[in-house]
Design a protein that fits this description.
The protein is an alpha/beta fold. The chain has a single domain, classed as 3-Layer(aba) Sandwich (Rossmann fold). It has 11 helices and 12 strands. The strands form 4 sheets. Strands 2-1-3-4-5-10 form a 6-stranded parallel beta sheet, sandwiched between helices. Helix 1 crosses helix 7. It is globular. The model has no long low-confidence stretch (mean pLDDT 93).
Length: 287
């Protein structure tokens, strides 16, 4: 019976939402993140605290990774620190999961087939290790929601925060690249389903978690600009002259899992999801 759920990367983009979601579902949540304590640094080999938490848990979500949005990846993914941080995180964590023989879900990315990206290569290594340990890989497609770490924030949060602070949205690209966005609440409901039915899904090489529709980044800027307009504020957006330098305009096609789609469908449209995030930051800024 699943009672204690360990979330590695509990303060991250997905982790913070999953902690709140599963707490409401009456699970006991064990949180581990370097932001919580340096003693929870997964890069440290033979970490007794992490080892004990994994041993105590009934299921593990391996969400921890040195990662952020496009701005963060563009700046750091080619650095030795980025590469070595993630190699250490995976090596130490997978070794403990193997030792304790725990069922787990590894958070990967739809970028894992992009071998020109260090982030993509590292996630592919994680996928292969997960498969060897009989875990389950979930490939996330641009999960968005309220974020707290603005250094690592993603495009939707970036646009909203820039609109609030500077009354303009300065884009990192021309906005022609397309992304498939999934709201955090929808991602969490899918993860709960996969956890509860782990034995049915673990035979799959990976599960794609996405909304199922692509949007141009410039259209996301338009949606956010219109929300400001509804509040009586004029916030214009300014595309740059550069093209997508992170995914190089590559647009993957998701693989539909029929068993997952039998029980799960995203509930939040892009407009509804963005409005949830927009209202949170706008209200917070008005307090």
């Amino acid at each position: 019976m699943l009672k204690k759920i360990l979330i590695l990367g509990s303060s991250g983009q997905i982790g913070q939402h999953l902690c709140s979601y599963l707490t409401e579902k009456k699970f006991t949540i064990l949180r581990a993140d370097i932001i919580n304590s340096k003693n929870q640094d997964l890069r440290n080999q033979n970490n007794k605290i992490i080892s004990r938490m994994i041993k105590q848990s009934d299921f593990v979500f391996f969400l921890a990774f040195d990662v952020g949005g496009s701005r963060y990846l563009k700046k750091y993914q080619n650095s030795s620190d980025f590469i070595l941080n993630n190699i250490s995180i995976m090596a130490n964590t997978f070794a403990l999961l193997k030792k304790e023989k725990k069922n787990f879900i590894f958070a990967s990315s739809q970028m894992s087939n992009m071998d020109y990206s260090n982030y993509g290569i590292l996630k592919k290594i994680g996928e292969k290790t997960t498969k060897s340990l009989k875990g389950l890989t979930v490939r996330f497609w641009n999960v968005y929601g309220v974020e707290k770490d603005f250094e690592k924030s993603h495009v939707i949060t970036d646009f909203i925060i820039n609109g609030i602070k500077y009354k303009k949205i300065k884009m990192l690209s021309n906005g022609k690249e397309e992304r498939d966005f999934l709201y955090a609440e929808d991602a969490c409901s899918a993860l709960e389903l996969l956890m509860k039915n782990f034995s049915k899904f673990k035979k799959h090489e990976f599960i794609d978690l996405n909304y199922g529709k692509y949007y141009k980044i410039i259209d996301i800027a338009k949606i956010i600009s219109n929300f400001f307009k509804q509040k009586g504020q004029v916030v214009k957006f300014f595309p740059s002259n550069t093209s997508d330098s992170v995914q190089l305009n590559k647009k993957n096609k998701s693989v539909e899992n029929k068993l997952l789609k039998e029980y799960w469908r995203p509930k939040y449209s892009i407009s509804r999801g963005i409005k949830e995030v927009f209202d949170y930051y706008f209200k917070k800024n008005s307090l």
